Every structure is written in C-alpha cells, then in structure tokens.
Amino acid sequence: MDWTIPDDVQQFVTDLDAFIDREITPLEAKHPQFFDHRREYARTDWERDGFPKQEWRELLLEARRRSDAAGFFRFPLPRALGGNDGSNLAMAVVREHLLTRGSGLHFPHADEASVVANLPLALVLHEYGTAEQRERYLEPLIRGDIEIAFGLTEPGHGSDATYLETTARRDGDDWIINGAKRFNSLVDCSEVDLVFARTSGQAGKADGITAFLVPTDAPGFSVPFNHWTFNMPSDHSEVHLDDVRVPAGAVVGEVGRGLDCAQLFVHENRIRQAASSLGAAEYCIDESVRYAQERVVFGKPLHEHQGIQWQLVELQTDAELIRNTIYKTAAMMDELGKTAVTDKVAMVNLRSNQLACRAADRAIQIHGGVGYTRHKQFEHIYRHHRRYRITEGTDELQLRRIASRMFDFGSTRGPAGGTT
Q1: pLDDT tens readout for residues 81-110
Q2: ∠98-39-144 over CA atoms, to 5°?
Q3: 59, 162, 305, 367 — which has fewest CB within 10 A?
Q4: Burial of 68 (0-12, 13-18, 19+ CB in 10 A)
Q5: What whole-number distance in Å separates Cα of residue 321 and Cα of residue 288?
Q6: Is 354 exposed, middle or buried (0-12, 13-18, 19+ CB in 10 A)?
C-alpha cells in the first residue's frame, strides 16, 4: 500500500489554508461574539425555541459563498455538480486537517457547516433523485439557497430504523403520510424534508420503507417543538405528519427501498465524522502539549511530570493508530465501494469519536481551571463530538456493524442506524 498522501490532495490542503487565512479568518474576526466565550449565547435565538439566529446562519452562508466562488466548497462533489470528485481518502485528509485548526468559521462545530462541503443529501439526490427532483433542488441546495431536512429518527425508534412507525399509503396517484419524527435536522429552515415511511413489508425489515420529499409547508406537517441539546443552538425538531399528502413524484429512489438513500447518507457521514473527530483530538493534544511546556508547577514545567506526559502519550498513540486505519478504510471505500467495508467504517467511527471526547476531557484537566472555562475551546469541542457518538449510528450500532461482519449475520441493507 502507498502510504503517501497524493500530491494533488496535499496541494489542495495548502491552497485551502491560504484561502482560509485570506478570506475566512478576517471575516470571522469581524464577528468575534460568535467565536469567543459568547459563542453559544450569540449563535442561539433563545426566544425562538433555541434555533440558530438568522445572523449566524447568514454568516455561515457568506463563508460558503466565498468558498464556492474560490473553488473549494464543492471539492468532494461529483464533477456533474461542479465538484472535483474528491475521493474518500482526500476528504479524510481534508476533514482531519480542518479540525486540527480548532473551531472557527472554517469549521465552527455547528452541525456540519464547513468551507468544504459535507452534503450527503446532494449525493442522495444525484444518485437516486428523478430528473425533476435534481433540476429543482440540487443546485439550490449546493449554493445554500435552500436546505433539505432529514427525517429518519422517530420518538420510539433511533438506531432501529427498520422499525419505523411512520406510514405512507397510496391514495390514487398520491401518498398520505402519518407519523412523527424526532431530531429532524434543519427542518426549521428547510423547503422540504426527506421523510422515511413504511409503505409495505414487515417491521424490522428494510424492504418496504420509502423516502419522500415532503414540503415543510404542506397541510398536516407541523413542528410542535425544538429539542434543546447539549450543544446549542439546536436544530433538531420534533415533527408531526398528520394526513400529509404528497404526489407520486415526491418519492426518492424506488418505492420500498428508501433505506438505500439512508445508507448512502450515513456512510458518507461516518467516515467524515471519524476524520473530523481525529482532527479535533489532535487539536486538543497539541494545545495540551504546548500548555504543558509553558506551565510551571511545583518548580518545574508541567510536561516534566510523568503523570501529564503519559496522558498525552496515550492519546497521541491512539491518534496515530486511528489515523492510519481511517486512511486505509477511506482508500478501500474508494477502491471497493462505500458500503463494501462497512465494518471498517464502523471501527474508525467508534474509536475516533471516543478519542475526540477523551482528548477534550484530558485537555480540560491538563489546563486546570482555565480549561474548564469557555475561554478555551475544549468544552465546545467535547459537546459537539459527543453528539457524533449518537448521530449516524450510536457506539452500540457501530459495534453491531462490526459484529455482523465477524459473525456473518445481518446484511448491507440492514438498519441504517442514524439519529440525524
């Protein structure tokens, strides 16, 4: 195996850094309230059920527009969508690198906002959408003119996605949808919601679940409340669907095979989450090493105390092992297909997300009292990456994925296992 990072990927990262320093960091500096100790307060519309403030969303959109104009944002997207066909390996390198810079407008630890696109729904529409759906939604979604929400998780079902209670029945050429969704990401600002509902088959089986593009202003579609979460602002709403009528053209992909869309969505996110968590862990480790070399306690530098050394050595060793496996897994996905190494994706997702949480926690401890304050990024990083241990499949779901390959049970079309 060639362990070198391709020259074009290295150049892309170098050019990306220069762009961030030139365009994004100065823009961030004009809005310090969104990035210093006031970040959670400034970003959140507390009077509107904890959704992101409009000013914050507008700043994220401006960063996206600048990145798109400079040729960076669409890098991972297919060339047909104006992208560079960025490989999974390239995106693993890019995502890790972005997070080693810490939190900022380039990656603000707010959902999946980034100067390099993470738009799995664009890939879903490109792969499974009809010509009409692609024409109507794809380019506006990529530009940021619209958002599309993702409605898989339900009040009674998270990782067990094949047990959905939301149903859709035919009525002439239309479908009538009834049910409820939980943690329905981005529904507050989305034109449509990708809703998964059972149209046939048996509970616990993947066959018979269908994906629908449901207008958020459709009669019977309501958002009774928004869930306030560990990391605010929150954009994870409760959604009710009461006799919501959609036409046959709202179906994405094949009727009864909607979880194909969900699988594509979560596989794209799982490997990228793993790379992001690795980068965040490395940031926490690097900051702790720097602090331990500067801080003097009991008459000598903090890093000379073996109790501190060993904590950071353990983290750095895990980071190196995880990095190698992430890169190997991403390269295998490029060669064999996104779902061919699902157990390896689960392995790196599990370990990397756990590492980010451990590294943030250790950084807080090593920095002492100041590490516990909001003047450092560690608490913010911890809260964001703690979410990764639930979304796109819990730790337990990742373990099940690994076990299914080891013991030859389940199938690649089993539970999608996401709570986005």
Answers
A1: 999 999 999 999 999 999 999 999 999 998
A2: 60
A3: 305
A4: middle
A5: 19
A6: buried
